[in-house]
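Model the whole thing, not chain by chain.
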Amino acid sequence: MSEKILVIAETKEGEIRNVSFEAIAAAKKIKPDGEVIGLVCADDDLENLAQELIYYGADRAITVKNDNLKSYTSEAFGQAVLAVVKQESPDAIIMGHTSIGKDLSPKLASKLESGLISDAIDIETDGDQPVFIRPIYSGKAFEKKVITSGIPFITIRPNNIAALDRDDSRSGNINNVDVDIKDLRTIVKEVVRKTSEGVDLSEAKVIVAGGRGVKSADGFKPLYELAEVLGAVVGASRGACDADYCDYSLQIGQTGKVVTPDLYIAVGISGAIQHLAGMSNSKVIVAINKDPEANIFNIADYGIVGDLFEVIPMLIEEFKKVAVS
Amino acid sequence: MNIYVLLKRTFDTEEKIVVSNGVIEEDGAEFIINPYDEYAVEEAIKQRDEHGGEVTVVTIGDEESEKQLRTALAMGADKAVLINTEEDLEEGDQFTTAKILEAFFEDKEVDLILAGNVAIDEASGQVGPRVAELLGIPYVTTITKLSIDGKTVNIEKDVEGDVEVIESSLPLLVTCQQGLNEPRYPSLPGIMKAKKKPLEELELDDLDIDEDDVEAKTKTIDIFLPAEKEAGKVLEGELEDQVKELVSLLKNEAKVL
């Protein structure tokens, strides 16, 4: 019998998050001949979500439907996932290193008395042994880590391991598991949305981020225009958030979000270590800053020294031309 | 209220990192209280001042960690405990740490445990939830607001930028996120007082722990620095031409458009 890898999928606004598809790809890297089981827990409409997991490479899927799974809590989701783990006895478990992943995985690992390698950005193999690479020391160094005892339990950083192509000719079984979820001591009473709808910063392919150089909340407007042209998401440095130019929900850095987009455009950001920790692993970095000595130019692939309020409108025009050509 | 803070001494990651033979060079480096644990210390002190009780700061480490414990005492914590593993443990991971803390808490009456949501050095973010699970108490991570009313606890939790309003109950473990409070600096009288506050030192034997029971489940086999990035291309010429060149480079050289 082939080995089983359980991928704990996550939903946002009624859809599976991309990082869950990336987790399926990661599962196949860890055990190429294994059977990938996608798990989705929610209060409603699970069939379609489970089907998506199969299109993205899962061999079969399990759903747990329960009214207590409407909002995530570690207690309710913990009970749901543990019931499935008990039934399937997987040989590895993977999920995204997201707010939910960070919250749930240590609980499960503790319950299963297993190790947990969190925030992996790449997987290598050394013979049969998977080796996980993860950033440490605020992204200034990396470590290679292995599981020495128990099953591999991994969370992966969004945007680093490519998902497989969606293939809607794939098929697989979808089973629902009934779980009695009880004794909940923690409840979510309300969610106050501060981020905009749509793509989350940590999963964005292109990010336009502003810093203190943007000078005001109004100063962010051209950044939003640029983002719209590029299909990008807007982020900010801690400095810009501290100065009240934008909400803390946009903050990228050691505190705030860690992002790895394909393209990161840093506008009026000096490049403090606190900010670099959140974005220095972006694939291509563009810096636009008035100060030619700004630290951000040391890690940027391309830099323009100039006034952002002149540069951004020109960039918008130029990107529009590319978009139509 | 019996309030405990889980504290970690960490490498100050603002420092330059030097790796030799697959380990981070610690000679001459600055060590600090993990910044997220500072929020935990501050919040513990505030909650104690409001509700009464005692704040105990706990760390696992070696004698060097005494400095960070004294700092927490100087901020206003009442007692400190150092679980010194220097002689007993070569290596440990988050499983190890959580198991040791479980043993420590076995005979304690706990109302509230606070920890940082992540340590800036190893960045695993596991210890808080693991400990809560082992103790069989609920937990809420990355909190930005905490108010306690009797046994009921009202919390605001940061969820990737959004805020969840959560209700839970004591006993409880929370992990702290930036925005929860502004940690105070130790005052001079605070520093003087801290020297006389109790700092208990324990070893694994005192907790009836056998090294084998807490053996790590994971192992770091190498540490390396990111490949030195080649200095980027700072464009030159008229601004308008720079912009054109940039878009062309992104399209044709970097191929990200």
